[in-house]
Structure formats: structure tokens, C-alpha cells
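About this split. The held-out portion is used to measure sequence recovery: a designer receives only the C-alpha cells and must propose an amino acid at every position. Recovery is the fraction of positions where the proposal matches the reference. Here is one held-out target exactly as it appears in the evaluation file.
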């Protein structure tokens, strides 16, 4: 194990969600065009992509091997906005190794964590600064920004857990977070009829 890695110290900036130093950080950016088909309003999706293809979220992770027995961690910065009446969200995923859990700790902003199991059970938790959500093994998860500022959170999960994004390509999550009368509302996804 000593050959795999050495101790690492990084700094997490709570207000921005950035991690330093840069050479110890991996970055992923997702634009609306990366999430075609995820939002209910396909016309609004295509119009927004044609106009500007907005950046929806960024992930910053410490440069740690994605393997057992490591613990992976980083931050997600989910920007404010909506596609139609549906708030900006992450793609969402199961872990490929389904007996692995994850923790989110909110550093800034506010949002929801949507969760669901393959057997149809669903859960939605509001998350604000200073609050933590535990995502048990076997639960898929997606983050949704319902505020006017960036929704920034720290995450940690076991190395080697992997991500199954494709499970949601056809229908998405069973619940959506939409704006109703100026407020966020968790509603059933009509694609599940």
C-alpha cells in the first residue's frame, strides 16, 4: 500500500468550493449540452444550448487513486438557474459498487438531494450551509440547486465505488424539483406515468 500513495494535504475554500493546490486537483465541468434529455422541457433545453450552453456545475476532487482502500473526496459547485421550471441539477448516479455510501456537507447555498433505490423507494432532503446528508449504500443521488447563489458542497465516498450514470439516461429520476408559485417543489417525474 505504501507504493500506491503518500499523505496529501489540500485546502478547501468553503465560499468558492475550490481546492488547492491545483496540481493536486482534478476538475470536471458539465454544461447543459452534456445533460441533453435530462430536463423535461426539451425546447427550453435546446434554446438555452443554442444561445449559450450554460455551465451547470463543476466538480473538484483531490488527486487520490480511485481504488480500494482509498477515500475519495472533493467539492461540487452547482450554479443557480432553471431549464423551463426545473432547477439546475447534477446528472445523478448510482455507485457501480452498490454497497458503498457517500456523504455531502453543504458549504454554501441551498438545494435538494434526491435519492432513490432500484426498487422504487425515493427520498428528498433539503440541504443548507452546515448541514450533512448521508447517502446509504444502494441509493442513487442527484443534487439540485434551488437558491439564487452557487450550491457548494463537500463529498466523500470509498475509492473504487464507480459511477453508473446511464441508469438514468432514459427516464431520469423518479422525482423532479421544479418551481411552483415561486418556491421549489418536489414532484413526481411524469415520464414514470
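Reference sequence for scoring:
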Amino acid at each position: 500500500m505504501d507504493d500506491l500513495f503518500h499523505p496529501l494535504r489540500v485546502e478547501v475554500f468553503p465560499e468558492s468550493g475550490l481546492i488547492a493546490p491545483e496540481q493536486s486537483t482534478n476538475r470536471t465541468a458539465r454544461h447543459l449540452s452534456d445533460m441533453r434529455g435530462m430536463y423535461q422541457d426539451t425546447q427550453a433545453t435546446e434554446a438555452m444550448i443554442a444561445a449559450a450552453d450554460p455551465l451547470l456545475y463543476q466538480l473538484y476532487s483531490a488527486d487520490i487513486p480511485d481504488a480500494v482502500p482509498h477515500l475519495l473526496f472533493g467539492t461540487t459547485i452547482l450554479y443557480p438557474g432553471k431549464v423551463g421550471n426545473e432547477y439546475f441539477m447534477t446528472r445523478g448516479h448510482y455507485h457501480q459498487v452498490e454497497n458503498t455510501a457517500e456523504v455531502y456537507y453543504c458549504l454554501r447555498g441551498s438545494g435538494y438531494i434526491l435519492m432513490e433505490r432500484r426498487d422504487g423507494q425515493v427520498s428528498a432532503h433539503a440541504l443548507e450551509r452546515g448541514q450533512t446528508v448521508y447517502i446509504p449504500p444502494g441509493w442513487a443521488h442527484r443534487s439540485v440547486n434551488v437558491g439564487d447563489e452557487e450550491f457548494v458542497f463537500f463529498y466523500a465516498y470509498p475509492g473504487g465505488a464507480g459511477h453508473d450514470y446511464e441508469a438514468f439516461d432514459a427516464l431520469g429520476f423518479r422525482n423532479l424539483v421544479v418551481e411552483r408559485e415561486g418556491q421549489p417543489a418536489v414532484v413526481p417525474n411524469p415520464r414514470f406515468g
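Annotator remark: The chain has one helix and 15 strands.
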